[in-house]
Design brief:
By secondary structure, the chain is α+β, with helices and mostly antiparallel strands. The chain has 3 domains: 151 residues, Glutamine synthetase, N-terminal domain (Ubiquitin-like (UB roll)); 407 residues, Creatine Kinase, Chain A, domain 2 (2-Layer Sandwich), CATH 3.30.590; 113 residues, Four Helix Bundle (Hemerythrin (Met), subunit A). Helix content is 46%, strand content 13%. It has 22 helices and 18 strands. Strands 9, 10, 11, 12, 13, 14, 15, 16, 17 and 18 form a 10-stranded mixed β-sheet that branches. Strands 1, 2, 5, 6, 7 and 8 form a 6-stranded mixed β-sheet that branches. Strand 10 and strand 11 form a beta hairpin. Helix 11 crosses helix 14. The two termini are 18 Å apart. The chain binds adenosine-5'-diphosphate and magnesium ion (MG).
Length: 713
Amino acid sequence: MSHPARQKCIESVARRPVPEPCPAHPAADAAYAEDVFTRDAMRKYLPKDTCRKILATIDNGEPLDASVAGDVAHAMRKWATDRGATHYTHWFLPLNGSTAEKHDAFLELKDGRPIQSFSGKNLIVGEPDASSFPSGGLRSTFEARGYTAWDPTSPAFVKRHGNGATLCIPTAFCSYTGEALDKKTPLLRATQALTNATRRLMRCFGARPDGHVTVSLGLEQEYFLVDKSFYLRRPDLVQTGRTLFGAPSAKHQQLEDHYFGSIKPRILEFMTDVERELWRLGIPAKTRHNEVAPAQFELAPVFEDINLACDHNMLVMEVLRTAADRHGLVCLLHEKPFAGVNGSGKHNNWSLSYDGRNLLDPGSDPRQNAIFLTVLVAVIAAVDRRADLLRGTVASAGNDHRLGANEAPPAILSIYLGGQLAEIVSQLECGRAGRSSRQAVPLKIGVDVLPALPKDTTDRNRTSPFAFTGNKFEFRAPGSSFSCAGPNTALCTAVAEAFDGIAAELETAPAGQLNDVLQGILRRLVKTHKRVLFNGDGYTAGWAEEAARRGLPNIPSTPEALEALSKPAHIALFERYGVMNAREMESRHGIGLDDYRRKIDIEGRCALEMATSMIVPAVRREFTDALDALQRTAAVSCTAGTAALRAECETLGTGLDTLQTRTDALAAALDRGDSAAVLSAMTALRETADALESLVDDDRWPLPKYREMLFVY
Ligand code: ADP
Ligand code: MG
């Protein structure tokens, strides 16, 4: 028997009712995007002329004709109320990294009678009293008004709950001075910058001047599931999203038997529920599987337009959480909920198309190859130039446990190309002059055809933070709880800069010499930026040393990583492209730091309370029991067992003393507000507590153990 409370949790899992056999469900595509104000819905609910105008705004970014807003609002409300919606909300991505919504009923009173109303003005702008959202100094509370502005490129949707529904209108959130108070606005600006730069570059290759640029993103989402009964008995999970104590279980992920294993029925039912809900929301959930750590899983949708993909990922996280709750589970999106097993990330699969053609697809003819190589080298240059900026956008207290912990990409940003492509890039460098250190044959741009590149998934280096995977780049450093808007804002802007640099030179190329000029540019860029290329194992100490020799930044923790947001060179870049101004960047730096400090402070306080009110009492009772037993042996002059009891008393007593000194140290660090000291005091305290966990009678240990949380579900 274990501790009665833990025993109850285990029994509740064991006694879960056997679910009814699954009823036949309608085909998934019947309900697909049922709750989205799609083009089809627009055609059905809007006058023809209005529909044409709104689609022009969505497709070509034409400014929305204010006169049609009323019609659109009316149609949207009608469509939403047909789906049971009673309220609407401007749905936005504040800087705290979550989503925000303030609901208003469609209800209005006219001469005392209720009517349903939703005006064009209500659709286009909202004024949430947003004084409590972090603004990093962009908006002081006395002038707290911010406003939300409709983003017509991300369709409105209806979000259902148990007994009702709400119309959600994706919006940007800005201050009255026009500064972005959210994560969407800079992403939209960066995508625009990249769109302009892509058109400019493609013009150099003789492409249609105003072609359609699509930046695509597929976000793989990792998460953990634990039974709710265990979760509720772990104050650390409830308060901080991760376990602050817990000895490793004998079996964890050594056997690698969880990854891609058959999915347990209870989990599969949860996943099915999640997918059905996502499909209704027009989110193309595609892949589901067990991940490496026990109780860890992944969901990946089909890639979409970058803005939509980022919005959709926020909804994916919300649906995962709410669906888990219905299944008696809790979905943990923290980057490192359990020590000693893998943490969770979000793989950011990114590509770029022009008039429907993926520019990261090598293609089969020399002209396509030239474009492919140019885009490839531009991304390499962008990542190398702006490595610390990219690192800064994935910095958080949670992600610090992942990056550099030999399970996720290291804190050093490098690019993996795979053997064959790396060879091609090195051939580019040796160029026509043929000054290759290897035996490589120079590659002639616009003339030579590239060999077919493998898209095989087995050829991927899982230790690389930024990997070329066939026809896209995969940035693997974002944390599982992140909004990916931030990292992609930086990535798109950095690539825009690299495109513009190349285009500026190509534009001056004498007629007929484009390929020669390009060859020279790419050779120079490869020479300058090849230091960021690394095909080896990113987890080795040797790589850290090698990276240091190459001058690559290796930034292990959040406070240093965030400094990139205040670096003049990066501010100048963002200002040049109109993505963010210095104040907007500073605000993000400040918010990131505050968030980091507050989270660590909360963790420290939670650990302190758990240690003093749960762990110390359990150890003390164990110690007293052992002392009692020892005393009784003396009373009856029994020598057998005294050696063992004495040793146990020593160990437990010493453990209590150490707990005392380490809780004192943690309390002192918390008083000083010193995050680094709090972190190391928590680590020390945890070490003692975890060692005692296996010594204290199982009946007495109040906290659900790793072997339970990770395996009993
Ligand atoms: P894994 O890395 O797990 O092997 P996949 O190759 O299945 O994953 O793809 C992962 C994600 O990449 C999916 O969301 C998928 O839609 C997305 N993806 C595939 N092709 C592209 C592309 N050209 N651009 C952006 N994302 C893509
Ligand atoms: Mg992946």
